[in-house]
């Protein structure tokens, strides 16, 4: 045989004549003979050796302590539990074959101190079909004893009432003699001699009845004996061993035929002792399956579980030899509690299970033994073929790590290593793990070894190097007569079989043959998904992605160009489109596939809604999906999408319609509605039966031939296949049913559970079909690889996108990209053809994502360009704005940005000036309108498509580079306009500039006189800015300075400026006024103003002149706020020869000195600010001096402030004149003091101090009256304005001490 052509049959010893019962040990037939298996065939692993030791220790403990024990024999279906008990039986009974097994011999050797010579009776029980645990255990013991010891008496485990009744009837009919002849010849002894006396003579135990012949008297006594009496039990034993022997077999299915389990276990313990056994070993098989079948009978299950406790502890402790129970367990008993059982018995059952858990040991037959067992019993290579298998496995070892991890399935039941994988090749550990999990659940007639054997038979002809696919496990699991573990699982398995039939039928139609490699591969994938649906928690079957499906069925799909997982995903997607409600997926890039099986058929619902599948509905759905994947917003008039092209915002318009039909898409629809936009016209992938994509294609070609030019792209798809159109129609019906709760109406006769199932199935179908058809759109529109079953009629020559723009005749969509990416790609090509010189601002430098340049970023760039111009063409840009400036300045060729500095370029100055020189309409280049510059940039220089803000940046930069001034509607602008404002009406003017010396002198003076700082570089903008700032301040100063001069002139006498002599303040004000007037003469002429400022001459220092102008506003405010009338009253008092006069003269001198001095030397503002307060104090002091004292008798009543009204109509009246005036000479401080509330002055002295003068008010009285009248008018004005507000007037006397203190202030 040629190397490389070997099959598995050639290299493995595959026994192809194995029957269904092979590999299965039937303990119900006993432990002897061929049915029990053989020790020689048993594979003892290290783990199994330890478990044999555990089992033997359990038996030793029971024998030594004469105490019953129990243990769970835990293992998966097919793990060899029955075979383990067979070998254990051989070990306990000292069969020679045990010593031939090295590991087994090692386990047994540790128990040689007690095991030799011991004899055990092992009783197997197959519990399926048992009435209850009592009858199963007791009757099973009787059957085993009858088989092994046919002459031995039957143990008293049956209830004797019915048996004795039948015996009485027979005795009456036959008579005593005939009846006795039917019984055994002698009454058997109840207990053999077991002890000797001191002389060695045998002694009978108490209660021992020696064997004797039956007599009438013995029969009467036995029939009359109560239950439990030895005579009664002896008679019963004689009957069941004699004339009523059939009673034992007939009682098997009658629960009431047996004694209680407590008494029965005691009876069989005694019976085994009588037969010479040292212990009884019970093996309970299929206990869990038996209880599972009765789960609906909650009380029964609860009672039976509690009976298991009796195997260990009993109300009847009389057990001469121990009973050791091994309970086969594939499923933990505690799993039966919970969702399977509801009701009041749950608590009792939980307590019983917990009690069992604490008292029952576990002998664990682990699944990791399976590889060793399979290698020894099933996968034996033929002689000399080991190297072939090694070479084949090396190919698996070269697989990718993902494939190796999936096949190894390290977290599975067998916990296999890579060496274990090698030992079970061509099986995989993942397959074995799934087999372990599902074999006991789905197939209980064949062991795991038998299933493996069948897999080998099925794949015997496969080439060496080909792993047995996991999907093939489905065939051997569902084949045969086995039944599922539970009704629920049985139902799910049946649904799985039905679905597999449907899927297989579809795949046969698709591939044409069951031998087609693609059919075999897809069928295996489906079967793998079915296994996962039945056992979702098996690690190997979780999250079945395309890669995992391919790995688990390694070798089913081969590809050199496309990754295998991608091919599997495509296959699953295609299958998903056929079964959208059953086959589901999660995720996009590497989706997880799963099957969801249901017995509810939604097809009748879809048939009922068939009339809702209309062409118009299909078009609307397709348009909505396309707009969604394209990122298009459906506006009120047009569907549009914003596109970021070269860092700028653009708009693409979209039209969806039948291109071939002028009624649907007129000619004018093939041009954008808004200038500057582009347009996409998109056709849909189907039409009436008589039309094909070639008709749409020809319509576009005719438009091009007719000279229709527009920035428009027409996107033509291939047509959907019939399969895809059927899926689209199915989706339309599903959508109809799910919208507006129509499903409730269509399922009104369904049960509530079925309504929910129907909705869920339809929702899943909607999601699946939507995903499938959306993916198919990319295929028919030419941007994705077309999969089988998607495309029908094709676009001629594969030209999916046609252009009506002559500059962009051959647009090409990009395969493998999304719709949105292709729109950006096609738009980029079209815009680039329309605007080839448009700068590319690139992506956002911070995020790397497409983002349009913002007006704020353009403004920032202009600010840095301006700063660079001020600094000689170069400036260090702040780090946080460096990337922004670089992004804009470099593509526009305004400057270059390196790691920090921005270096300006003069390219645009040259370009614009040359364009202006070439323009025939521009005769005067000294003034360039902005819109002319904009036109030159687009038309002459070719920079079309620039946004207005970008063009404005170029124009503003040109103004800086060419040192031009801004003007608006032929008038000079105070400053450059904001970028957004540059437009019609604005122009750039070439401006004459002052000399360098004049500019420098003007900058210096502007700083010293006006506090204005300006750029040292002489440009039109800096000159204009300097002039504007000086002009603004000069206007303010000129008004203030003029006001100060006028106010000083009006109040010259009071201020001490009335003489003809010049004073510093007036001189400075005169020079300031002159300078400001000269500056104001130049109006908007910035250059003239700067020259004027530079050439101005004045005698004062800059410091004094600056102070005079800068403080003029404050000085004028102080002058306007001065109470000149009050100050005049003070001047009137200055002629007095007393302290009042001194104070008045002192105030006037202070004001005069401040008014004459320069503002820098002495500010006039604080001097005037204190005039009112000081003047009022002086007037008040004078008034006190002049006030006449009150007469001594009668003493006027004292008054309070609240009792006096200020005015002549008050009470008492306060006259505005005073009849008595004291001369200045007579007035003294003493006379001016006193208490205003009542003068306590000697009346005689008072009269002597007064003298009469001519009538009429004195000057002081006149001033005081004037002040009081002003206060009164103020109060009356307030009350007129606020008539509802009460007014409180408070006054108090000021004593001499307080007055003196006030004067000192």
Task: Report how far the terminal alpha carbons are from each other.
Answer: 133 Å
Structural class: alpha/beta
* Fraction of residues in helix: 40-55%
Number of helices: 52
**Low-pLDDT segments:** 19-24, 33-37, 187-210, 335-345, 1199-1211, 1214-1255, 1297-1305
Order of adjacent strands in the largest pleated sheet: 11-12-13-14-15-16
Major pleated sheet: 6 strands, mixed
Tally of individual domains: 6
The backbone outline, from C-alpha atoms, is elongated
Domain ATPase PglY 5th: 857-959
InterPro entries: PglY_5th, PglY_C
Region (Disordered): 1188-1239
Domain ATPase PglY C-terminal: 1003-1182
Structure in a nutshell:
49% of the residues lie in helices and 8% in strands.
SSE topology:
Blueprint: H1 8-11, H2 46-65, E1 69-74, H3 81-92, H4 102-109, E2 120-126, H5 133-148, H6 161-174, H7 176-182, E3 195-196, E4 202-203, H8 216-224, H9 230-241, H10 247-250, H11 261-274, E5 279-285, H12 287-293, H13 298-307, E6 323-329, H14 345-359, E7 361-364, H15 370-377, H16 386-397, H17 401-408, H18 418-424, H19 429-442, H20 448-458, H21 473-478, H22 487-511, H23 517-534, E8 544-545, H24 546-552, H25 564-578, E9 583-586, E10 592-595, H26 603-608, H27 615-630, E11 633-634, E12 639-645, E13 648-656, E14 678-682, H28 693-705, E15 712-715, H29 722-738, H30 742-746, H31 752-780, E16 801-803, H32 819-834, H33 855-870, E17 874-876, H34 879-889, E18 895-897, E19 901-904, H35 907-918, E20 927-929, H36 930-940, H37 948-961, E21 964-968, E22 971-972, E23 986-990, H38 996-1010, H39 1020-1050, H40 1052-1055, H41 1064-1080, H42 1086-1095, H43 1102-1110, H44 1112-1120, H45 1124-1133, H46 1139-1156, H47 1164-1169, H48 1171-1186, H49 1229-1232, H50 1243-1249, H51 1259-1281, H52 1296-1304
Helix pairs in contact: 2-4, 5-11, 6-7, 8-9, 13-14, 15-18, 17-24, 22-23, 24-25, 29-31, 33-34, 33-37, 38-39, 38-42, 38-43, 39-41, 39-42, 39-44, 41-43, 45-46, 45-48, 46-48, 48-51
């Amino acid at each position: 045989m040629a190397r490389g052509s070997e099959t598995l049959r050639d290299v493995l010893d595959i026994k192809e004549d194995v029957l269904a019962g092979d590999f299965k040990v039937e303990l119900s037939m006993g432990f002897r003979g061929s049915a029990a298996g053989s020790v020689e065939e048993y594979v003892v692993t290290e783990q199994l050796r330890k478990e044999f030791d555990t089992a033997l220790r359990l038996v030793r403990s029971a024998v030594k302590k004469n105490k019953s024990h129990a243990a769970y024999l835990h293992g998966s279906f097919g793990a060899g539990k029955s075979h383990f008990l067979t070998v254990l039986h051989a070990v306990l009974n000292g069969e020679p074959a045990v010593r031939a097994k090295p590991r087994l011999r090692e386990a047994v050797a540790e128990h040689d101190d007690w095991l030799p010579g011991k004899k055990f009776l092992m009783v197997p029980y197959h519990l399926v079909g048992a009435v209850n645990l009592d009858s199963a255990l007791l009757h099973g013991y009787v059957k085993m004893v009858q088989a092994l010891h046919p002459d031995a008496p039957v143990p008293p485990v049956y209830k004797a009432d019915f048996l004795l009744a039948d015996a009485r009837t027979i005795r009456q009919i036959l008579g005593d003699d005939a009846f006795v002849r039917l019984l055994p010849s002698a009454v058997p002894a109840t207990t053999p001699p077991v002890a000797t006396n001191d002389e060695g003579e045998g002694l009978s135990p108490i209660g021992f009845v020696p064997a004797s012949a039956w007599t009438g008297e013995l029969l009467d006594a036995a029939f009359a004996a109560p239950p439990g009496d030895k005579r009664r039990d002896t008679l019963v034993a004689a009957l069941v061993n004699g004339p009523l022997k059939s009673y034992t077999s007939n009682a098997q299915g009658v629960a009431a035929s047996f004694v209680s389990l407590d008494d029965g276990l005691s009876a069989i313990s005694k019976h085994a002792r009588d037969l010479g056994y040292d212990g009884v070993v019970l093996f309970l098989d299929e206990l869990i399956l038996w209880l599972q079948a009765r789960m609906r009978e909650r009380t029964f299950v609860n009672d039976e579980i509690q009976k298991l406790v009796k195997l260990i502890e009993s109300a009847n402790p009389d057990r001469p030899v121990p009973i050791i129970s091994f309970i086969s367990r594939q499923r933990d008993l505690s799993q039966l509690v919970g969702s399977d059982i509801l009701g009041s018995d749950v608590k009792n059952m939980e307590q019983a299970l917990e009690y069992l858990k604490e008292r029952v040991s576990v002998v664990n037959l682990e699944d990791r033994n399976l590889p060793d067992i399979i290698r020894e019993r099933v996968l034996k290579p033929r002689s000399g073929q080991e190297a072939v298998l090694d070479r084949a496995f090396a190919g698996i070892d070269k697989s990718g790590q993902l494939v190796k991890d999936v096949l190894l399935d390290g977290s599975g039941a067998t916990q296999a290593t890579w060496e274990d994988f090698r030992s079970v090749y061509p099986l995989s550990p993942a397959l074995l793990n799934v087999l372990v999990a599902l074999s006991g659940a789905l197939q209980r007639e064949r062991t795991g070894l038998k299933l493996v054997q069948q897999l080998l038979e099925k794949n015997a002809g496969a080439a060496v190097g080909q792993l047995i696919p996991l999907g093939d496990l489905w065939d051997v699991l569902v084949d045969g007569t086995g039944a599922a573990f539970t009704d629920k699982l049985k139902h799910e398995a049946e649904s799985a079989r039905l679905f597999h039939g449907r899927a297989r039928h579809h795949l046969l139609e698709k591939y044409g043959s069951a031998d087609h490699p693609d059919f075999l591969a897809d069928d295996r994938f489906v079967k793998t998904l079915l296994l996962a649906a039945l056992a979702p928690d098996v690690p190997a079957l979780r999250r079945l992605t395309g890669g995992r499906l391919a790995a688990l069925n390694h070798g089913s799909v081969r590809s050199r160009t496309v990754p295998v997982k991608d091919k599997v995903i495509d296959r699953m997607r295609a299958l998903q489109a056929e079964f959208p409600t059953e086959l589901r997926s999660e995720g996009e890039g590497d989706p997880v596939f799963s099957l969801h099986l249901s017995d509810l058929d939604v097809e009748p619902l879809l048939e009922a809604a068939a009339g809702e599948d209309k062409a118009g509905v299909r078009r609307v759905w397709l348009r909505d999906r396309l707009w969604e994947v394209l990122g298009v917003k459906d506006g009120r008039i047009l569907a549009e999408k914003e596109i970021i092209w070269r860092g700028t915002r653009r708009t693409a318009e979209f039209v969806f319609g039948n291109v071939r039909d002028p009624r649907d898409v007129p000619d004018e629809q093939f041009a954008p509605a808004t200038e500057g936009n582009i347009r996409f016209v998109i056709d849909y992938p189907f039409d009436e039966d008589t039309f094909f994509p070639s008709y749409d294609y020809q319509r576009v070609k005719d438009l091009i031939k007719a000279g229709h030019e527009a920035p428009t792209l027409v996107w033509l798809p291939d047509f959907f296949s019939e399969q895809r159109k059927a899926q689209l129609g199915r989706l339309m019906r599903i959508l109809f049913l799910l919208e507006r709760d129509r499903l409730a109406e269509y399922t009104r006769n369904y049960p509530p559970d079925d309504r929910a199932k129907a909705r869920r199935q339809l929702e899943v179908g909607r999601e699946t079909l939507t995903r499938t058809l959306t993916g198919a759109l990319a295929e028919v529109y030419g941007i994705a690889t077309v999969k089988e079953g998607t495309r029908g009629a094709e676009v001629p020559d594969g030209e999916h996108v046609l252009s009506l723009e002559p500059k962009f005749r051959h647009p090409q969509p990009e395969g493998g990209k999304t719709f949105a990416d292709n729109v950006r790609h096609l738009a980029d090509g079209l815009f680039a053809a329309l605007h080839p010189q448009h700068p590319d601002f690139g992506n956002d430098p911070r995020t790397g994502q497409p983002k349009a340049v913002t007006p704020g970023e353009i403004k920032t760039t202009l600010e840095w360009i301006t700063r660079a111009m001020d600094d000689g063409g170069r400036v260090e840009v702040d780090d946080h704005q460096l990337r922004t400036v670089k992004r804009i300045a470099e593509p526009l060729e305004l400057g270059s940005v390196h790691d920090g500095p921005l270096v300006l370029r003069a390219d645009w100055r040259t370009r614009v000036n040359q364009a202006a020189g070439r323009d025939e309409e521009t005769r005067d280049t000294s003034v360039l309108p902005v819109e002319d510059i904009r036109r030159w940039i687009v038309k002459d220089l070719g920079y079309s498509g620039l946004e207005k803000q970008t063009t404005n940046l170029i124009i503003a930069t040109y103004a800086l580079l060419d040192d031009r001034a801004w003007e608006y509607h032929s008038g000079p602008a105070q400053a450059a306009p904001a970028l957004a404002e540059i437009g019609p009406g604005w122009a750039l003017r070439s401006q004459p500039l002052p000399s360098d010396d004049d500019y420098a002198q003007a900058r210096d003076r502007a700083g010293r006189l006006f506090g204005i700082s300006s750029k040292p570089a002489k440009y039109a903008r800096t000159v204009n800015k300097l002039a504007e700032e000086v002009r603004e301040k000069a206007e303010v100063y000129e008004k203030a300075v003029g006001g100060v001069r006028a106010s000083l002139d009006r109040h010259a006498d009071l201020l001490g400026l009335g003489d003809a002599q010049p004073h510093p303040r007036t001189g400075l004000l005169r020079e300031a006024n002159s300078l400001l007037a000269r500056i104001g003469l130049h109006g908007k002429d910035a250059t003239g103003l700067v020259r004027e400022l530079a050439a101005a001459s004045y005698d004062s220092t800059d410091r004094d002149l600056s102070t005079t102008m800068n403080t003029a506003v404050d000085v004028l405010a102080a002058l306007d706020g001065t109470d000149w009338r009050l100050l005049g009253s003070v001047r009137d008092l200055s002629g007095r020869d007393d302290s009042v006069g001194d104070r008045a003269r002192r105030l006037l001198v202070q004001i005069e000195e401040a008014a004459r001095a320069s503002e820098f030397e002495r500010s006039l503002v604080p001097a005037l600010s204190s005039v009112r307060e000081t003047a009022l104090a002086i007037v008040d002091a004078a008034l006190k001096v002049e006030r006449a004292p009150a007469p001594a008798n009668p003493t006027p009543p004292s008054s309070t402030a609240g009792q006096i009204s200020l005015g002549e109509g008050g009470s008492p009246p306060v006259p505005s004149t005073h009849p008595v005036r004291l001369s200045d000479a007579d007035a003294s401080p003493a006379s001016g003091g006193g208490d205003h509330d009542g003068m306590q002055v000697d009346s005689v002295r008072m009269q002597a101090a007064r003298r009469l003068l001519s009538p009429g008010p004195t000057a002081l009285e006149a001033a005081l009256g004037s002040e009081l009248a002003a206060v009164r008018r103020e109060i009356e004005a307030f009350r007129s304005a606020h008539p509802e507000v009460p007014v409180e007037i408070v006054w108090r006397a000021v004593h001499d001490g307080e007055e003196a203190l006030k004067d000192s202030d």
